[in-house]
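Hi there. Long-time user, first ticket. I'm pasting a complex I've been working with (about 310 residues overall). I'd like to know whether the download I got is complete or cut off, because the file seemed smaller than I expected. Thanks.
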Amino acid sequence: MIEIERKFLVTAETFKQEAIKQIRIVQGFLSTDPERTVRIRIKGATGFITVKGKSDDEGLSRFEWEKEITVEEADTLLQKCLPGVIDKIRYEVPMGKFVFEVDEFFGDNEGLVVAEVELESKDEEYPKPAWLGAEVTGDIKYYNSQLSSNPYNNW
Amino acid sequence: MIEIERKFLVTAETFKQEAIKQIRIVQGFLSTDPERTVRIRIKGATGFITVKGKSDDEGLSRFEWEKEITVEEADTLLQKCLPGVIDKIRYEVPMGKFVFEVDEFFGDNEGLVVAEVELESKDEEYPKPAWLGAEVTGDIKYYNSQLSSNPYNNW
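Hi, the file is complete. Here it is re-exported in full:
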């Protein structure tokens, strides 16, 4: 299956009224080399270490390996990460058969809120709630690895 | 989590007569940043992912976090590593209550043999067998991550 995601800015807090779930995510990077990114993440009560490769030429598939670790381990590893830890709350906002994942950032990315929705094809129709703003799909400055080194409040 | 280790050059092959165990180690690096090295290792029938920090000012203690993974996972991750895979045999050489880990390198590091001993405190006395040469504790060019990008045969 080919996964296609579109990413948007979020222009109003009203999405929170429609959220069914929210979870705190804190993450940092041991390496931001696009060929071998190494991410440390705490998501709720679980830790993860994740290695990602570069996207293929079409941008459709990307190597990913992930291992669950304890929050304590992740905490220790976050202290070794490159400067610029990402701190955000991820909201799940269902809309019919779709689920928007909305990330509200804190710290140096405070003020930034982005939503992602996964589609089955490039031209599939998707809901456009009132809080959905400009599309930023493919804009690398919104990649989390980039927000880490060049946060929103520096733009 | 913090190791106290001293590292030495090895000046004679006689250590092999005292070795009780030897194991082949193949390893690569996802990051060679000395502050946050990420190593993938296959040691015998086991895989590992390891994060190491930089030594403290005296070069004696160094942050280390390690997780066991399968050889298959390690194999996949080795393919994502930076060029310059390290290939060595590690000998375990017991000396009283201490164990020297002696690494004999191959490939681009052929000719290099180093020994490490783990101590309980920075000033603990340790054995000095005849084959133990100059101390190189804290010298980053002997870090395996550095031997990967700048191997011994290039020095």
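A couple of notes from our side: The first strand of chain A starts at residue 4 and ends at 10. Strands of chain A lie at 4-10, 21-31, 37-43, 46-55, 62-69, 86-95, 98-105, 113-119, 132-135.
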